[in-house]
Design goal:
Belongs to the ACC deaminase/D-cysteine desulfhydrase family. This protein has two domains: 183 residues, Rossmann fold, CATH 3.40.50.1100; 105 residues, Rossmann fold. The protein is built from eleven helices and ten strands. The chain is of the alpha/beta class. Bound molecules: pyridoxal-5'-phosphate.
Length: 297
């Protein structure tokens, strides 16, 4: 397999009592199932970076993230799979998490920046010592953001549309997905070009600068954002964990508590508040991220 051939994510109906009560139909696009290691939306976000690195003959790829980062995990796994070197610049001081162990086992060069060092990532000159240390390597912005990441995510729309007939739908009303940097949402908005609305459930507080990418890339229209972070990124609470548990038991679809669980709980709140008219058909994007669950569940 080539890194340009993104695996097809399955689309299937999602039945939950609160959806049935509101007569809202949901199909879920399972990016969590595309690969056992290269999980979720991160492969789509990496696709163009991998292509650029390949075309420019870069010896490796380098990026940044935290000690549970789904992005670094996907990058390390893709590097191992497709045969290129990877380096990860991590936030904070050395920690032994399941994700970090995987990064090392997948051959990633891991460097710990501390907290101050990590905060400097947007400063001019940040990359310079790393470019000296890893000459010619392709640098990927934190989280795989930016235009290249968004363009890769546009392919998600094509994957869903190709499967509508199989679930007996001729069309859909809108998308629902978890938002971190907003890159995946921007990709959907770009690919939809106004054909269908995109609803983003914010897994990070609204003032974290998330919508910037979205505004720039998506032109500020064609999407709506909903608060879903429940007090902060990576904060969890009993109601959320119980909701995830009940959803999993009901549907068999695994969720994690940072993004997909919060997105689905925010959907329930909006459905119960009557945001969607009876007969609305939504595609919920399962963005993956299940590897990160080992850190806290
Ligand atoms: C990274 C991630 C997101 C957020 O994606 P963005 O493109 O940064 O908005 C959502 N869900 C999961 C599971 C993720 O790992």
């Amino acid at each position: 397999m080539d890194f340009l051939d993104l695996p097809q994510a399955p689309l299937h109906p999602l039945n939950l009592p609160w959806l049935q009560n509101a007569k809202v139909e949901v199909a879920i696009l399972r990016l969590d199932l595309i690969d056992p290691l290269i999980s979720g939306n991160k492969w789509f976000k990496l696709r163009h970076h991998l292509q650029h690195a390949h075309e420019s003959g870069a010896p490796g790829l380098i990026s940044l993230g935290g000690s549970h980062s789904n992005h670094l995990h996907a990058l390390a796994a893709a590097g191992k799979r497709f045969g290129f070197a990877t380096a990860g610049l991590l936030r904070g001081h050395p920690q032994d998490t399941p994700t970090v162990r995987d990064l090392q086992a997948l051959g990633m060069h891991v460097h710990w920046l501390g907290y101050g060092g990590y905060r400097a990532r947007h400063e001019a000159g940040f990359w310079q010592p790393w470019q000296t240390r890893y000459p010619g390597w392709h640098c990927i912005p934190e989280g795989g953001g930016g235009l290249a990441g968004a363009q890769g995510c546009g392919l998600i729309v094509a994957q869903a549309r190709a499967q509508l007939a199989e679930i007996g739908w001729d069309d859909y009303s809108a998308w629902w997905l978890a938002v971190g940097t907003g890159t995946t949402l921007a990709g959907l908005v770009l690919a939809e070009a106004g054909a269908h609305d995109v609803h983003g459930a914010l897994a990070v507080p609204r003032d974290h600068g998330v919508p910037d990418v979205v505004m720039d890339l998506a032109g500020g229209s064609g999407y709506q954002l909903h608060d879903a972070c429940r007090g902060g990124f990576a904060r969890t609470d009993d109601e959320l964990l119980a909701f995830i548990d009940a959803c999993e038991r009901h549907t068999g679809v695994p969720l994690e508590a940072l993004y997909t669980g919060k997105a689905l709980l925010a959907l329930r709140e909006q459905v119960e508040a009557g945001l969607f008219a009876p007969g609305t058909r939504l595609i919920v994007l399962h963005t993956g991220g299940l590897q990160g669950r080992r850190g806290y569940l």
